[in-house]
Design brief:
about 325 residues; alpha+beta; Immunoglobulin-like; 4 domains; 6-stranded mixed beta sheet; 5-stranded mixed beta sheet; 4 helices; binds 2-acetamido-2-deoxy-beta-D-glucopyranose; transmembrane helix; membrane; Ig-like_fold
Length: about 325
């Protein structure tokens, strides 16, 4: 009669084989079988493999090294092996019992750095894009129970764009009633970059008056356009709070790839309130402008101008009267 630990992926088992023969031995066997079940159910909480965790970088830049690690608690049990798989292919094994505990298996694209690999981690040198995918770490404890557990995690290998982002704008100065368009581009990357627009440090969101598009095809330039229409939410505030006839905003295009790459390009754009030939009463601070606050904002400059000339005539009349009085 013998007790054998049988290695089963992901769980333990306990096998007892009675030999043919005396019924008395069968009774003993039954007792042993029972105790084996009891022991194997009690042991995991007493000592054995638990808390297996895998740590794989979410994103690595192509050509760099990547260290993958696996943490586990064996409690009182001994380690039998740690195996690492890329997809279904094993590429690294650590067996402390062996004279040379580390084994490397040839897997296309994988270059294990043995000086930086051990029982809990494995380092890959010069990662290529093909190494994007799922990695698994499988830990087995030694006899008698051979508890085995496995965890997996995904790693993305990133190819950075070679060129800096660039921005083009269709106007250097935007008037209240102008449409405005800007385009931001960045060279090919893998995966395609995300482009985000900011004005004075605040993100510009997509709305019907703030249109944003982004196009990216694998292996080609990533492109984003921003179109701003009159009375857009983002510019409205700036126009309303404008201290003078002219002010400017800082338009920024940020290019990012996951959390590993961020670059931006920015440009200052002028805002201009009104055509230079029309004088708005708002700007002169005259009473008349208040009556037109609820009127059509598109025509406020024109209607205001009419109001302005009336007031100006009044002021002029008063000035003439004052002058006349002084001469008396
Ligand atoms: C782009 O942004 C989305 C949404 O935040 C994110 O899920 C995705 O991973 C990003 N892609 C890249 C390449 O950074």
């Amino acid at each position: 009669m013998g007790i054998h630990g049988v290695k089963v992926k992901g769980r333990r088992s306990c096998v007892l084989r009675p030999r043919q023969g005396l019924p008395a031995l069968h009774a003993v066997f039954n007792m042993l079988a029972l105790s084996c079940i009891i022991i194997s159910n009690l042991l995991p909480s007493a000592h054995g493999l638990k808390d297996l965790k895998i740590f794989v970088p979410e994103a690595v830049i192509m050509g760099n090294a990547a260290t993958l690690s696996c943490q586990y608690d064996l409690e009182k049990a001994a380690l039998y092996s740690v195996r690492w798989y890329f997809g279904q292919e094993e590429f690294y094994r650590y067996v402390p019992r062996e004279a040379t505990p580390t084994f490397v298996f040839p897997v296309a694209g994988i270059n294990v750095d043995l000086t930086n690999s051990d029982a809990t981690s494995v380092t890959l040198k010069g990662v290529t894009r093909d190494l994007t995918g799922s990695y698994q770490c499988e830990v087995s404890e030694d006899a008698p129970l051979f508890h085995t557990d496995i965890r997996s995690a995904y790693m993305q290998v990133i190819e950075l764009p070679k060129d800096d982002p660039a921005m083009q704008v269709d106007k250097k100065v935007i008037g209240v009633n102008d449409n405005f368009k800007a385009v931001c581009t960045v060279g090919p990357s893998y995966p395609p970059a995300n482009i985000t627009w900011y004005i004075n440090g605040r993100k510009v969101y997509k709305t019907p008056l703030q249109r944003i598009t982004q196009d990216a095809f694998e292996g080609s330039t990533t492109y984003s356009s921003l179109e701003i229409y009159p009375h857009s939410q983002v510019l409205q505030g700036f126009f309303q709070a404008m201290p003078k006839y002219q002010t400017s905003i800082l338009l920024l295009c940020e290019v990012s790839i996951l959390h590993v790459f961020h670059k931006n390009v920015q440009q200052r754009i002028g805002l201009s309130m009104a055509p230079p030939t029309t004088i708005s009463p708002n700007l002169l601070g005259l009473e008349g402008s208040k009556r037109y606050v609820n009127g059509d904002p598109d025509n406020s400059a024109l209607t205001g101008a009419a109001q302005c000339s009336c007031s100006a005539i009044g002021v002029l009349t008063l000035a003439v009267a004052t002058l006349a009085a002084a001469q008396l």
